[in-house]
Each structure stands twice: as structure tokens, then as C-alpha cells.
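Lecture notes, unit on protein representations.

Consider one protein chain, 148 amino acids long.
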Amino acid sequence: MIRYALVCEDDHRFEAWFSSSDAYDTQAGRGLVECPQCGSVQVKKQVMAPAIANSSRRETVTGGVAGGPESVSPDDLVRKVQAHIRANYDYVGERFADEARAIHNGEKAERLIYGETTHDERARLSEEGVACAPLPDAFVPSSGKKTN
């Protein structure tokens, strides 16, 4: 897993996880990496300092929690994100765009959802002010369902 700091053409800054640098290049080249704020697919990597692990210990990701920092291996982080999605989000499949729009418009009860949608549908949702963003493949729950 690799985390990139990204910036879109409108200077919105965000981070995203990819299984490898080639995965980022492939997804960006196909227009699949988009800004979660404006939906632009004109996204570039920012300069980042590499995380280097020495041979005596495994690479860790540090995240703040109440009571102090916690070290989590990248594999554990992926499993925690997948478990969180399974436990807290409703899978709506290919109905994602319709469900997200209905929730946004108050036609359905507010809840956390995930599912599949096309790039064009995501762009339309963004234009309408409906918040959604694709999830890196590694974070998709093991059921094979893709999060937006």
C-alpha cells in the first residue's frame, strides 16, 4: 500500500491510498482518480517525504487516538477500514447514485451507503452537491463490493 498526497487543478488537497505506484498511474491515466471536493480528474501527486523502515522493524502508520498515538501496520489499517465499512455502511450496489441523491434531497432517511457508480454519475452527483468519492481498491470490503 502507498499513500499519495494529491492536488487537483483547483488546488484542492487530499490523500488517497493505492496498492502500488503503478496502480495510481493506471487509475489516474484512465481518469479514475478524482478530487473528492470538486470531482476534477485533473489530479497530480504532491511531493512527499518517503516513509522508510529499517530492517529491524516493520513499517507502521501512526494515527492519533484518544489517549495517545497508535501504531498500525498498513495491512492492519486496510483490515480496520474494511471492517468499519462493513459494520457502518449499507451496500446499495448499482443503485448508489439514485440512493445518494434521494438521501441528499431528503427523500430517504440519512444513512451511510456504498455501492457502484460510473464516472459520469459521480460527476453529476458532485455538480448537484452530493458528496461521494471512490475508495481505493485495497479498502473495498472483501465481498468485492466497491465503495464510492
